Amino acid sequence: MASRLQQLRSKAVQASEFVSKHGCTYYKELMEENKRHVVQPPTIEKCQELSKQLFYTRLASIPVRYESFWKELDGMKHIWRNRKDIKVEDVGIAALFGLELYAWSCVGEIVGRGFTFTGYYV
Question: Is the pTM of this model over 0.85?
């Protein structure tokens, strides 16, 4: 256990050294590449205004998303009504998609518990 802790510490030190050496240049390059997205002047008031615009824009998009939800549901109803015409390939793809969703849910639970399988810290 102590050797693993020492390894973890050495890796953390290496990462910290790398960030301290290259972090500033990475930041400058990133800001230079994305300067078209920066609002001038970058003030707290402007950030608050943009935050409110984003919030209310998302609120305004709810009716459009609501309509698209019902269109998707109508499509599913149509598929269900014509389920005799569904191909085996389509069923297989849907089953794989459902399995993938379930797997992501399981992985999310494991990550949420701190990468433990039992839920208890050892």
Answer: no
